[in-house]
Design a protein that fits this description.
The complex is a heterodimer of chains A (315) and B (276).
Chain A: H1 3-24, E1 33-36, E2 39-42, E3 60-64, E4 69-72, H2 78-89, E5 96-100, H3 106-109, E6 119-122, H4 124-145, E7 158-159, E8 164-167, E9 170-177, E10 184-189, E11 194-196, H5 214-225, E12 231-233, H6 244-265, H7 270-273, H8 288-307, E13 310-312
Parallel strand pairs in A: 4-5, 5-6, 6-7, 11-12
Antiparallel strand pairs in A: 1-2, 2-3, 3-4, 8-9, 9-10, 10-11
Chain B: H1 4-25, H2 42-50, E1 55-57, E2 62-65, E3 76-82, E4 88-95, E5 102-107, E6 111-119, E7 125-133, E8 138-145, H3 157-161, H4 164-167, E9 171-177, E10 183-189, E11 206-213, E12 218-224, E13 233-238, E14 248-254, E15 259-264
Parallel strand pairs in B: 1-8
Antiparallel strand pairs in B: 2-3, 3-6, 4-5, 4-7, 5-12, 6-13, 7-8, 9-10, 10-13, 11-12, 11-14, 14-15
Classes of the chains: A alpha/beta (315), B mainly beta (276).
Chain lengths: 315, 276
């Protein structure tokens, strides 16, 4: 190859590389995995938000019905939503007719913008939380993951009031639960047996608890166990075979709460509670040390507020 | 005026001379130790808070513990612990890059020289704790925290809900008996602890807390400043001599002159092992 030809080739490569990076920004690598008839999930990274994963840490999914696609959760950003739309297009030419947001955490709802034209629904508490804190959650995620958030705007869902509806031959049943947040929507497709449980269930990944209500979460797990599902899609982590993800979530949640309640009752300060050892049986949960640390910071002050005896003052 | 130009020249010469002075002077008195936590603001904070008092770094005996990663800059848990330096007159905690760095001064009169509480941190910063020994020397330790920002310059949660107006004064607390015979006290006071750095919200914070035994003996005194977190929570350990079988009394006052007082019942339970 002549020097000139080589130079030209290099130049062309440099220009096209720069052009690609410039035009597309962060690239989400999404691969739909089929978990039931016409039902797919996009499995997120099990680590914390980072520039490398662009905030893609949650599982999202979609159901291809006879009349259109139902999307369950939209990921962390506009770019994710667009990549998801493209992934759906690779499976079906049918339009997205409905978007369901399980709860108001930023890794689950900030890609909604990419589905303009579809009806976006969620539980009442989710709408309220997105309306109140959506901007703040989005800004915070921008700080954590950077460029991947470019152009992301908050879309507030409309109310989903009905407990059941049929879309394109799929019998969808909604349970309005709470515990992970004030409002957690579980979507059970009775036609396929697939249940999308949002972040009420994690699998092989430590729980996050910034808005958790432990007793309600435990109740919600009992409600989920009563659903006659064939395949569960947890909010984070790989697909479980049976009920093991619920059992794991219940076990970790009970341990976490008991450990912090006991530390409080025993007179420990939060700085001492950070040193509590995570039991061996939870070592297989992704980023358990990091999440335990966050959980202490979030839960311990609330436990203190409830458990320290009132000794005076107030009106 | 005729003197104009020479005056400017004179000023310039003076300024030039002053600028050179510190360089020349630095060779004579022992230069202050470099900050092991590489805080850009340490020299200024040291001079402002400790003046000319003798001060030395002693990371072995003065330990500061704060989470490696902070999510809520308004509630950053910080434990300061001093060991092996004998009687400590006072412990001061500063967050170097806060608009008002001093978080508190703690006088462990009949308490162990350690205190845990939560503070506001306005941005990623070094925290320094200094313990004053009987010989008048400040012994300094510290740590670094990475915080998202805005702990001092965003309104407190209770400020926006105004709930403190009905709860101000409410105190929670409890005593536990430690294995060494001294009591641990944990105290929480409802107070917005406004720093004054948020537009339209004047400074309003608890600046004095005293713990006495039921018999009236002063056993610990805390002088909080702007950075102490909203609804402050304090954990302190009394010495066996400072411990009372009849319980304690907390008295506090704030910058608006509000005062409060609450009895802390005697310990009825043992402290759990510190590291479960």
């Amino acid at each position: 190859m002549s020097v000139l030809a080589r130079l030209l080739l290099c130049l062309t490569m440099a220009v096209s590389l720069a052009g690609a990076a410039w035009a597309e920004g962060f690239v989400y690598d999404l691969h739909p995995i089929q978990v039931g008839k016409g039902t797919y999930v996009l499995i997120g990274d099990t680590h914390f938000f980072s520039r490398d994963n662009g905030g893609n840490i949650a599982n999202t999914g979609f159901i291809v019905t006879q009349t259109g696609v139902v999307v369950i959760d939209t990921g962390p950003s506009r770019l994710y939503g667009e990549a998801m739309r493209k992934a759906i297009r690779g499976v079906t030419p049918l339009p997205v007719v409905k978007v369901i947001i399980t709860h108001a955490h930023p890794d689950h709802f900030l890609g909604t913008q990419a589905f303009a034209g579809a009806k976006v629904v969620s539980g009442p508490g989710t709408i309220e939380m997105i309306r109140k804190h959506g901007q703040e959650l989005s800004a915070n995620l921008y700080t954590l993951v950077g460029d991947a958030m470019q152009g992301t705007e908050v879309v507030t869902p409309d109310l989903q009031g009905r407990p059941q509806e049929t879309i394109g031959g799929h019998d969808l049943r909604y349970s309005f639960l709470s515990g992970h947040t004030d409002s957690d929507l579980v979507v059970f497709d009775a036609t396929t047996g697939v249940v999308f449980v949002g972040d009420l269930v994690f699998f092989r990944r430590a729980l996050t608890v910034p808005n958790a209500n432990v007793p309600r979460w435990q109740e919600a797990l009992t409600r989920i166990e009563a659903i006659p599902y064939r395949q569960m899609v947890p909010g984070h982590g790989p697909m479980p075979r049976g009920g093991e993800a619920v059992a794991e979530t219940r076990d970790y949640l009970r341990w976490l709460n008991d450990a912090l309640q006991q530390a409080m009752a025993g007179g420990l300060d939060i700085t001492e509670a950070f040193h509590i050892k995570v039991p061996e049986r939870f070592r297989n949960l992704a980023i358990v040390d990091e999440e335990f640390h966050r959980s202490v910071g979030q839960l311990f002050p609330r436990i203190e507020e409830q458990a320290l005896p009132a000794i005076g003052g107030g009106q | 005026m005729r003197g104009g130009i020479p005056q400017i020249l004179l000023s310039a010469a003076l300024l030039g001379g002053l600028a050179v002075l510190p360089v020349a002077a630095a060779a004579q008195p022992p230069s202050p130790e470099a900050d092991p936590f590489e805080s850009v603001n340490w020299d200024g904070v040291r001079d402002a808070v400790f003046g000319q008092a003798p001060l030395r770094f002693d990371l072995k005996h003065v330990q500061v513990e704060a989470p490696r990663k902070v999510e809520d800059g308004g509630q950053v848990p910080v434990a300061v612990s001093v060991q092996g330096l004998g009687k400590i007159r006072e412990i001061v905690l500063v967050a170097d890059l806060n608009p008002a760095p001093r978080a508190y001064s703690f006088r462990p009169i009949a308490a162990q020289p350690r205190l845990a509480t939560r503070i506001k941190v306005d941005q990623a910063t070094a925290l320094h704790a200094a313990a004053l020994t009987e010989d008048g020397v400040w012994h300094v330790g510290g740590t670094k925290v990475d915080a998202p920002g805005g702990g001092c310059t965003t309104p407190s949660a209770t400020q926006s809900s105004q709930s403190w107006k009905t709860h101000l004064n409410a105190v929670q607390g409890k005593a536990w008996r430690r294995a060494d015979g001294g009591d641990r006290l944990r105290i929480r006071v409802i107070h917005p602890m406004n720093t004054g750095f948020v537009a339209g919200i004047p400074a309003f914070f608890i600046d004095h807390m005293q713990v006495r035994t039921a018999e009236g003996k002063l056993v610990a005194e805390l002088l909080p400043a702007e950075p102490l977190a909203e609804n402050p929570v304090i954990t302190l350990d009394l010495t066996p001599e400072g411990t009372s079988a009849s319980g304690y009394r907390l008295d506090w006052s704030d910058t608006d002159g509000n005062r409060g007082s609450a009895p802390i019942p005697a310990a009825s339970q043992s402290l759990a092992a510190e590291e479960p």
